[in-house]
Prior knowledge:
Number of strands: 14
Strand order of the largest sheet: 5-4-3-2-1-13
Largest sheet: 6 strands, mixed
Number of helices: 3
Amino acid sequence: MIITCIGHAMFLLELDNGMRILTDPVDQGSGYPVEPVKADAVLVSHHHHDHAALENAPEAQVIDTEGLHTLAPDVKIQAIHAWHDDAQGTKRGSTLLFLLEAEGLRVAHLGDLGHLPTKEQIAALAPVDVLMIPVGGYYTIDVEQAKKTAELLQARVILPMHYRTAYNADWPIAGSDAFLRLYADEDVTRQDLLRVTQGDLCCQKKVCLLAAQLKG
């Protein structure tokens, strides 16, 4: 599996069978110079503008509801309800947590999670091989909560997302460095993409900050 970050919470997952899965497509109004991406399926955790720009995934199957979604006999996605805030959704509504099971890997994308996961959510998700998790705070869990969440989910590889960058510099969220500082230097890597298999998980760094693969 190859995972690239296009920007914000938008990742492209490319499977060995040729299937391409896109997560939470960000819109240009968020500051990111994005373009349409060829994808077979798009996961939408919630319909806020910076996570549901479906024009960036034309013709893709949209998955934005709870439950089990089978894309192929060996490619399954579980969508789990969660809250976008720490007040049962009264501030920002709900979000979905996605668990992709393919190629012997368990890959999770936590959307705009706004609270520590419940026992039920942990039971459904853990253990996670690759975890895409918001770390910017304010709209989502903050850096300390993100680290705790990764521990609760027994994440082996962590991909930070939803943090402040040059493209959204006026947003009231933290940058990626605040999260990276919680880990030893030898546990962190910065890459353009993550190529991962079940067999090489033990060789991967704990935290991988993926550079945004943007146009323009």
